[in-house]
């Protein structure tokens, strides 16, 4: 196993489409709920412990070798809003292309054939991590980091925040990121005995509601 693969997988420059999405922070900024670095910190912390935890559990389970199609169905159940389902599958399709180029594997090929329009992004992330020789914890950590890294980067553009403040925020969340990844990986380890119901299903209703609203905007900076 090379931890360099984890750096590549979590790198925002990976051509998987994540840079075009704000993780819900564009809608939060427009609504006035995120106005500054303090508001962004609260937003990211809430997202990490809800959507981030759920995504981390799915990624960890996929990296652990559990049935990717069953996990994809579980991701669908955990994504009740059509707009976010579409986004997750679109990002999953783009990540599949990048992962198959970087870490060719029969598992990625099978997932692509079974879900040609895209599996959910956290599931693809986990299968890619497995192909790269990474652990369930590594995959969960990458998913958790993505859940806050994207919004932090988007907020710099939306609010004109100092990039140093956004970076400092991510650094301050390090312990919580580790904790979420550990919880997700532990849940993933129980899937073999308990099924997908062992995985987190934390919800963030306001993110769901604003995602649908954002999708209907005629003009927006980010795709979601």
TrEMBL record:
The keyword Chaperone applies. It comes from the Bacteria. UreD, UreF and UreG form a complex that acts as a GTP-hydrolysis-dependent molecular chaperone, activating the urease apoprotein by helping to assemble the nickel containing metallocenter of UreC. The UreE protein probably delivers the nickel. Gene3D superfamilies: Urease accessory protein UreF (1.10.4190.10). Keywords: Chaperone, Cytoplasm, Nickel insertion. It is found in: Cytoplasm. The keyword Nucleotide-binding does not apply. This is Urease accessory protein UreF. Belongs to the UreF family. Transmembrane segments: none annotated. Coiled coil: none annotated. It comes from Streptomyces durbertensis. Its main location: cytoplasm. Required for maturation of urease via the functional incorporation of the urease nickel metallocenter. Pfam families: UreF.
């Amino acid at each position: 196993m090379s931890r360099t693969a984890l750096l590549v997988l979590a790198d925002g420059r990976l051509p998987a489409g994540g840079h075009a999405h704000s993780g819900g922070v564009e809608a939060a900024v427009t609504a006035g709920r995120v106005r500054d670095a303090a508001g962004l910190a609260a937003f990211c912390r809430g997202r990490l412990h809800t959507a981030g935890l759920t995504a981390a559990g799915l990624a960890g389970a996929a990296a652990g070798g559990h049935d990717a199609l069953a996990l994809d169905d579980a991701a669908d159940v955990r994504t009740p809003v059509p707009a976010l389902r579409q986004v997750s599958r679109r990002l999953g399709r783009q990540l599949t292309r990048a992962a198959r180029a970087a870490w060719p594997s029969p598992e990625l090929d099978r997932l692509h054939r079974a879900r040609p329009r895209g599996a959910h992004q956290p599931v693809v992330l986990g299968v890619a991590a497995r192909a790269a020789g990474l652990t369930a914890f590594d995959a969960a950590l990458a998913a958790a980091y993505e859940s806050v890294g994207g919004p932090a980067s988007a907020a710099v553009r939306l609010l004109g925040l100092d990039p140093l403040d956004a970076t400092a925020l991510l650094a301050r969340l390090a312990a919580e990121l580790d904790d979420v990844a550990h919880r997700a990986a532990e849940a993933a380890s129980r899937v073999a005995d308990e099924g997908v119901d062992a995985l987190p299903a934390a919800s963030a209703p306001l993110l769901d509601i604003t995602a649908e609203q954002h999708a209907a905007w005629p003009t927006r900076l980010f795709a979601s």
